[in-house]
Amino acid sequence: QLCYVCGQRGATVMCCKEDCDRWFHLPCAKEGGCVTHYIPHYSSYCHQHRPEQDVQVTPEPGTQCLICMELVDDRKTFRTMVCPACKRAWFHRDCIQGQAMCAGILCLRCPLCRDIREFLSQMFILGIRVPFR
After folding, report:
1. Complete domains list, the chain, with CATH
2. pTM reported for the whole predicted model
């Protein structure tokens, strides 16, 4: 199969959306805006069919990522996320992924409001890999 992100052969991951014929390599997924769920059923979605955050807020101008302290985009995107509980904590996908890898499932929570229930379930849905340690 051809990877729709890089165009090379050997793609092994297919979008789970019915009637979608996009295939991609797992390492190309992030670059292509794809989302992979690292929880059972281990589903993967292309950029067009990936789950989106259903929180309807936009960051204030000059809002910084709470992890790296760099500015976030002026809206919610694939690379910019918000805490679903407090709706005030903004962060980059790469930053929260790094935090998740260090914290693990027992310690990962919103950096601002410290919510764990809504925050963790949303991170799983949005394809953030959280190790069970």
Report:
1. 1-50 (3.30.40.10), 53-132 (3.30.40)
2. 0.88
